[in-house]
Write a structure and sequence with these properties.
Blueprint lengths: L4 E6 L6 E6 L8 E6 L2 E14 L8 H13 L4 E12 H5 L15 E4 L2 H8 L6 E7 L2 E9 H7 L1 E4 L6 H14 L4 E5 L12 E4 L10 H7 L7 H10 L2 H5 L3 H12 L6 H17 L20 E5 L5 H28 L12 E5 L2 H4 L7 H16 L1 E7 L7 H5 L3 E4 L5 H10 L5 H6 L7 E6 L6 E5 L13 H24 L1
Parallel strand pairs: 9-14, 9-15, 10-12, 10-13, 11-12, 13-14
Antiparallel strand pairs: 1-2, 1-6, 2-5, 3-4, 3-6, 4-5, 7-8, 7-17, 15-16, 16-17
The protein binds adenosine-5'-diphosphate and magnesium ion (MG).
C-alpha cells in the first residue's frame, strides 16, 4: 500500500536522525517520508525495535507467562520504535541533490511509507553512465542503478564475508562495463573470472621481465627463503646492470653466481643459489620472461583484461600486482600528459580510463606490512582519480586492509559481515556506514548489499542481480558430486556384470 501512515516522529529529533513510534515493526532498509515543516523528507530505517512494558526481562518465568496474557489483552503494551536516518528532501533527491534542512523535524510529524514513484525517480536513473545492479530489497519493483563514471573516478570497496556475493557483483560490473566498451583489469587470484562470458574479454598471462625487478623482488619471486641472508646477499651482488642488460639474462646471471663460488665464504650458498636460479629458469619461464619488454603488452584498451594469477603464490602475486599497478598508473599519466600538453612523443597503452579490481585486498594491501602491491595500490588510491585510474578492492576481512587505502574508497558495497571488528573498522574508516546499519550487517542475506557513496544517489539496501553463468568461485556441492560418482561407478559395475552374464 502506498503512502500508508506508518508512525509519528517522537522523542528527541536531530536534522540527520529521528526516532519514530510506528504502527508496525519497520524493516531495516525501508524508506519512509517524513512530512516536516521544511517539506517532505526521505529517510531510511537504520534500526528497528519492538518494546513491551509488561513483558519485561527482569521477571521470572511464571510472572512472564502471566504477563504474556495481560499484554495480549492490552494492545497499548507493545510499541514499535525505529531509528530513521534522514537522507534529504524528496523533491531535491529526485533531481540528484541531497539537501538536508538545518532544523530537525518536530516530534509529532507524520511518517509515511515512501511512494514507489518517488523512489523510482531517485534510484532508477536513466542514461549511459547509470547501470542497473538490482532492486530495492524492501521494494522489489524499484530498480537500482549505479553510476559507472563515479566508480571509474572515485574507487569502490566491495566488503563482505566469504560466500555473500562479492565476486558475483564484480562479475556483474565487468559485464556492464564490457557492454559499455569500457576497460578493466581484473587481478584474478582465484581464477574465477577467466570463464566468464564477456564479449570483450582478454585473458592475460601474468608475465614480468626479471630485468625490471630489484634483487629482493627477484629473490621473492623465485622463492628464496626470507631468512637465507647469504643467498640474498649474493644475488644482490650478482644482479648487476650488466646482467640486467645482457642479451641472455639467465646465462649472464648464472655466470656471475658461479664466479662467487670461488670465494670461500660464499661457496655453499652460491651453489645452492645457482640451483634455485636454474630451477626458476626451467619452471618459471612462463612468468619470468626476460624477452618481455613492455609490461602492459598483453593488455588491451576497451577490453575486460583478466590477469590469470591462479598459479602464482601469494608472494609472487604481490610483486606482480604491485608492478602492474605502478605501470598502469604511469601509463595513464603519460596518456593524460599527452592530452593536456599535446605531447605526441609519449607512448601509452590506455588512452581512456581504466578500472582495476583487486580480490583478497586484505592480503595485498595489509594494515601492518609494507609490500610492493600495497605501495602501488596506495598510490593509485591517492592519485588515480586525476589520471582516470580507479581501484575496486574486494575483501572478506576489511579490518585487515590498510586504513589509508580503504578510506579513499568513494563508494562501497557492503554485504553480510559477521565479525564485529570488521563492522567497526568500516564505520570508523568511512563515515558512509552508520553504526546502526553496521549492526544490521550480520542479518543480510546472500546477494543483499548496502550500497553507499558516490555511485548511488543515497544509501540503498539492494538485492543484487545474480550473474547467470556459474562462476568457478561458487561453493562446491560435494554431496552431489559424490553421489554422481557413486552412480557412475555403479553403472560401470552393472555393465561389467552384464558382460559376464553374456
Ligand atoms: N545476487 C545474488 N543472488 C543470488 N545468489 C547469489 C548472488 N550473489 C551471489 N550468489 C551466490 O552466492 C554464492 C557465493 O557468491 P560469491 O559471489 O562467489 O561470493 P563471495 O565472492 O563473496 O565469496 C554463489 O553460489 C552465488 O551463486
Ligand atoms: Mg569471491
Amino acid at each position: 500500500m502506498e503512502n500508508e501512515l506508518l508512525g509519528i516522529v517522537a522523542g528527541e529529533s536531530f536534522p540527520h536522525q529521528v526516532g519514530v513510534i510506528s504502527t508496525r515493526a519497520l524493516e531495516v532498509g525501508e524508506y519512509v517520508e517524513i512530512k516536516s515543516r521544511s517539506g517532505a523528507l526521505l529517510g531510511i530505517v537504520d534500526s528497528s525495535a519492538i518494546r513491551s512494558r509488561i513483558i519485561s526481562p527482569e521477571k521470572d518465568f511464571e510472572t512472564i507467562f502471566e504477563a504474556k496474557r495481560v499484554s495480549a489483552k492490552n494492545p497499548r503494551d507493545i510499541s514499535y520504535f525505529a531509528s530513521v536516518r534522514i537522507l534529504g528532501l524528496v523533491d531535491r533527491l529526485a533531481l540528484g541533490v541531497s539537501q538536508i534542512p538545518a532544523t530537525p523535524p518536530h516530534p509529532g510529524c507524520e511518517v509515511f511509507r515512501a511512494s514507489e514513484e518517488s523512489l523510482r525517480k531517485i534510484f532508477t536513473k536513466q542514461g549511459r553512465e547509470w547501470v542497473p545492479v538490482g532492486s530495492l530489497a524492501r521494494m522489489n519493483n524499484v530498480q537500482v542503478s549505479v553510476n559507472i563514471n563515479k566508480l571509474a573516478s572515485r574507487h569502490l570497496g566491495i566488503l563482505a564475508a566469504t560466500g555473500s556475493g562479492k565476486s558475483n557483483l564484480l562479475a556483474h560490473i565487468a559485464k556492464k562495463v564490457s557492454e559499455l566498451n569500457g576497460t578493466m583489469v581484473i587481478f584474478d587470484y582465484h581464477g574465477e573470472y577467466t570463464d566468464l562470458s564477456l564479449q570483450t574479454k582478454n585473458v592475460v598471462p601474468p608475465k614480468i621481465s626479471p630485468r625490471f625487478l630489484d634483487s629482493s623482488e627477484f629473490a621473492d619471486l623465485i622463492d628464496i627463503r626470507e631468512s637465507a641472508d647469504l643467498q640474498r646477499d649474493i644475488l644482490a651482488q650478482c644482479m648487476t646492470q650488466h646482467v640486467k642488460e645482457s642479451d641472455d639474462f639467465w646465462k649472464a646471471l648464472k655466470e656471475e653466481i658461479k664466479s662467487k663460488m670461488d670465494e670461500t665464504k660464499y661457496k655453499g650458498s652460491a651453489a645452492r643459489l645457482l640451483e634455485i636460479v636454474e630451477r626458476a629458469e626451467k619452471k618459471m619461464g612462463a612468468i619470468l620472461d626476460p624477452s618481455f619488454e613492455e609490461p602492459l603488452k598483453m593488455m588491451k584498451p576497451n577490453r575486460i583484461n583478466i590477469v590469470d594469477m591462479l598459479e602464482l603464490t601469494e608472494r609472487q602475486a604481490n610483486i606482480l600486482l604491485g608492478y602492474y599497478l605502478e605501470e598502469l598508473l604511469e601509463d595513464r599519466k603519460r596518456a593524460t600528459r599527452m592530452t593536456w600538453q599535446g605531447n605526441s612523443d609519449e607512448r601509452y597503452t590506455f588512452a581512456s580510463p581504466v578500472i582495476c579490481a583487486v580480490e583478497e585486498a586484505h592480503t595485498f594491501i595489509p594494515v601492518d606490512q609494507h609490500t610492493r602491491a600495497k605501495r602501488a595500490a596506495a598510490k593509485v588510491a591517492r592519485e588515480g582519480r586525476k589520471f582516470g585510474l580507479s581501484l575496486i578492492i574486494i575483501s572478506q576481512r576489511p579490518s585487515r586492509i590498510d586504513q589509508d587505502v580503504l578510506s579513499q574508497m568513494g563508494s562501497m558495497a557492503v554485504m553480510k559481515i559477521i565479525q564485529p571488528a570488521d563492522q567497526n573498522y568500516i564505520s570508523n574508516v568511512s563515515e558512509m556506514l552508520s553504526r546502526e546499519l553496521a549492526n544490521y550487517l550480520p542479518s543480510l542475506n546472500i546477494g543483499e548489499s548496502i550500497l553507499l557513496g558516490q555511485w548511488v544517489s543515497i544509501p540503498a539496501l539492494v538485492k543484487l542481480q545474480k550473474v547467470d553463468e556459474k562462476l568457478t568461485g561458487s561453493d562446491i556441492n560435494a554431496v552431489e558430486k559424490w553421489h554422481e560418482e557413486e552412480k557412475r561407478m555403479q553403472i560401470a559395475v552393472d555393465k561389467t556384470s552384464d558382460l559376464i552374464v553374456d
